[in-house]
Write a structure and sequence with these properties.
The protein is of the alpha/beta class. It contains 9 helices and 28 strands. The strands form 6 sheets. Strands 1, 2, 3, 4, 5, 6 and 7 form a 7-stranded parallel sheet that branches. A 5-stranded parallel sheet has the order 8-9-11-13-15, with no helix packed on it. Strands 10-12-14-16-18 form a 5-stranded parallel sheet, with helices on one face. It binds 2-acetamido-2-deoxy-beta-D-glucopyranose (NAG) (12 copies). It comes from Caenorhabditis remanei.
Length: 511
């Protein structure tokens, strides 16, 4: 009875990563509609390459529009014919597919170096029992990133170079199974019964979902995993931490998903991703959600440092800092009491750092500080610039809605440049608040917006957005009413002709 109950409460990983399907006819019709890319002289009309169709190939073109498909009908084409046909081909506009062939290599693509997969069609290399060499793919450039890539059932093909080469680094829609060597383990479903099959996996591809799981010890089979490509969701479990992923170093997300979604895990007090070094989500924010965890849940400063180093965005971040000041790298961590009491050699500071009247003489103590776990306020000082914070890369507030960085009432402060600062964070509405300082900090909205871009966060300047730096009527007020984060604010920004570029950059930062 207990056994049955346990079996029903299994962990499962949703089978989202399945074979990509496509309709070649539709793909071709859509491609040929893009007349700006598809020169009618340089397109290949046939649905597959065969002895009957190969002479339709526009041999004189270097850039050819095609959904170029090799199938079993291509098997009886002599290699020399393939080679002479594709001799001049440098770029494919479209995609190519190799399915059900007896080819051993694709070296007849002697000059192919680029693919403009403008409609992000599926690239498929499947069911080729003799294929051993597709090196053209590992070196080819791509204009459009992250199209679906499928390699399956090629028993003599080592696909692993694809996953380490730069040209596919931003791709995460990969379905790679049943080749001689895959990239790692492609996850379909993991449950308590089959988790043991993943014991030798050092990298996992695919969205991972743990739900309603009761026994994390069974997941120790995942403890060799170092790289994860695809979003992870952990919901409705009683896990206390994710220590079964304690060796995970890299997480590559999906630009459309919450990449680390921890939701309704009431017993979770720690993350436990002790080896995490790198988060990556193409050009987009790496989205994290930590919600509905144990009230004592805490993040170590090392974990938070990883989050803040990459452009992480939070749906919710219900966490405090753990009261731990020793670091694996041995860097000195100080707990802030006052500027006068602060040691000279702190690299990390926990607590709310307050620099105020009379503290000017101590500011050199902050010159090697890289991270503040808490807020930074500089108020009522005679400081002129913030050069002493040149090594400060991040300030992140948890469990409080105060600004991450507050620069208030420093009448001589005219230069607020922070050399290394990126993505200061607070759960509150304003990451950076600048008010009542020297009137010449920003001489134009351009300078203010430039500053926002350089620090990667919205700046509230004298109570308003950057648009108000010059109130000459060119800028309409942005809607800040109750907006929880910077994206809403910049989304309503009024982009004047001169500021379109800056706005575009801001949107990029705030996506
Ligand atoms: C592909 O799409 C075309 C037109 O949309 C349709 O006629 C054809 O049946 C489809 N082929 C498959 C295999 O679904
Ligand atoms: C491709 O097909 C279209 C329509 O069937 C035809 O008009 C065009 O001439 C063909 N192009 C080539 C290069 O064969
Ligand atoms: C390849 O073979 C499989 C199974 O034999 C078949 O389902 C599929 O349609 C074939 N694909 C092509 C492009 O011929
Ligand atoms: C590349 O193109 C040049 C000129 O079109 C040709 O001479 C050469 O043989 C091609 N190289 C390969 C490897 O096909
Ligand atoms: C993890 O990914 C990195 C970067 O792509 C690669 O260098 C490394 O070999 C991978 N590690 C494993 C265990 O696959
Ligand atoms: C893991 O590797 C060991 C040693 O190579 C092998 O004996 C075992 O079968 C593998 N386990 C799985 C699940 O692949
Ligand atoms: C997991 O538990 C939730 C809440 O009890 C329930 O709504 C959901 O259907 C369960 N999911 C599965 C797959 O059992
Ligand atoms: C989870 O937390 C609840 C309440 O705090 C507790 O009763 C239960 O024993 C915990 N379960 C596990 C597996 O730790
Ligand atoms: C943090 O831990 C230290 C000892 O390690 C203790 O003295 C201090 O009171 C703790 N602080 C909090 C806020 O719990
Ligand atoms: C700054 O000075 C003003 C006026 O002297 C005072 O009201 C305010 O509390 C001071 N702020 C801080 C943070 O010391
Ligand atoms: C940053 O720290 C290094 C020592 O780690 C120091 O030499 C350098 O002067 C600091 N830079 C600034 C701008 O303070
Ligand atoms: C902040 O964390 C402390 C415990 O560290 C907790 O007592 C307090 O309620 C939290 N405050 C907020 C606003 O969540």
């Amino acid at each position: 009875m207990t056994c049955l109950l346990l079996l029903t409460l299994f962990v499962f990983i949703t089978p989202i990563y399945t074979v990509f399907t496509y309709n070649a006819t539709d793909d071709m019709a859509l491609l040929f509609e893009t007349t700006e890319y598809c020169d009618s002289q340089c397109r290949f009309n046939a649905s597959e390459v065969s002895l009957d169709t190969i002479n339709l190939w526009p041999v004189d073109c270097t850039d050819v529009c095609a959904i170029l498909k090799f199938t079993s009908s291509s098997n009886n084409i002599p290699y020399e014919k393939l080679k002479s046909t594709f001799l001049n081909l440098k770029a494919i506009i479209g995609v190519f597919r190799v399915e059900n062939t007896t080819m051993t290599n694709l070296s007849f693509f002697g000059n192919l170096t680029f693919m403009y997969n403008i409609n992000k069609n599926v690239l498929s290399i499947s069911n080729n029992p003799k294929l051993t060499d597709v090196s053209v793919l590992f070196t080819m450039g791509n204009s459009h990133l992250n199209y679906p890539v499928q390699f399956m059932n090629n028993p003599k093909l080592d696909v692993s170079p694809l996953c380490v080469r730069r040209n596919f680094f931003d791709f995460n829609r990969l379905y790679i199974v049943n080749n001689m060597k895959d990239c790692g383990c492609t996850v379909t479903i993991i449950n308590y019964a089959n988790v043991v099959n993943f014991k030798n996996c050092t990298s996992i591809f695919g969205p991972i979902e743990f739900s309603n799981a009761t026994d994390p010890s069974k997941l120790s089979a995942l403890s060799n995993v170092r790289n994860i490509t695809g979003p992870i969701s952990i919901k409705n479990t009683n896990f206390q931490n994710l220590s079964f992923f304690s060796k995970v170093e890299r997480m590559k997300g999906d630009d459309s998903a919450v990449n680390l979604d921890i939701h309704n895990n009431p017993n979770m007090t720690r993350l436990g991703l002790d080896s995490l070094l790198l988060l990556h989500s193409g050009d987009a924010w790496f989205r994290v959600n930590i919600q509905g965890v144990h009230p004592d849940f805490c993040l170590t400063i090392e974990e938070m440092q990883v989050f803040t180093t990459f452009n992480t965005k939070y749906v919710k971040l219900e966490a405090n800092y753990c009261n731990i000041t020793t670091r694996k790298d041995g860097q000195k961590t100080c707990v802030f009491e006052s500027m006068s009491a602060l040691a000279d050699d702190c690299v990390h500071i926990m607590g709310n750092v307050a620099v105020s009247t009379g503290d000017e003489e101590y500011t050199r103590k902050l010159s090697i500080v890289t991270n503040i776990y808490g807020s930074l306020s500089i108020t009522n000082t005679t400081l002129k610039n913030l050069e002493f914070l040149g090594n400060l890369t991040n300030v992140a507030v948890l469990n409080d809605t105060s600004p991450a960085i507050l620069l208030d009432s420093n009448s001589d402060l005219s230069d607020i440049f922070l050399l290394s600062m990126r993505f200061p964070y607070t759960p509150g509405p304003n990451a950076v608040v600048v008010q009542n300082n020297d009137a010449n900090i920003f001489l134009s909205p351009y300078q203010c917006e430039n500053y926002q871009n350089s620090v990667g966060a919205y700046v509230l300047y004298n109570g308003k957005g950057c648009d108000w730096v010059l109130s000459d009527g060119d800028y309409t007020e942005i809607d800040t009413g109750g907006a929880p984060g910077i994206s809403e604010k910049t989304a309503t920004r009024n982009c004047g002709v001169y500021w379109i570029l800056i706005c575009a950059l801001l949107f990029f930062v705030n996506i």
